[in-house]
Amino acid sequence: MNSFRPCCALPIIGFMFMALLSLSYGQEAAPAPSPTSDGAAIDQGIAYILLVLALAMTYLLH
């Protein structure tokens, strides 16, 4: 144990921190995909509104 001096520990710890820092920049975040709409979501929303409206009318008239 006498051969391991504290002066050798500092470069080893510094090298470990440098390696960890370089690993943290390994991959960048991907850009968000551009939103595309083919109108299917709008059509489905309109269908749901009409369905709820028909259900409410049926409930009130019955």
Which helices and strands appear, and what pairs or packs with what?
Elements: H1 6-24, H2 40-61
Question: Notable features of this structure?
Answer:
transmembrane; membrane; 62 residues; mainly alpha
Give an overview of the whole structure.
The protein has helices spanning 6-24, 40-61. The protein has 62 residues and is an all-alpha fold. It has one domain. The protein starts with 5 loop residues before the first helix and ends with a helix. The model has no long low-confidence stretch (mean pLDDT 77). The chain crosses the membrane at residues 42-61.
Could you write a compact summary of the structure shown?
With 62 residues, the chain is mainly alpha-helical. It has one domain (8-61).
Sequence stretches where pLDDT stays below 50 over 5 or more residues: none
Annotation, overall tally of beta strands: 0
Shape: rod-shaped
How many discrete structural domains? 1
Question: Strand-and-helix sequence, N→C?
Answer: HH
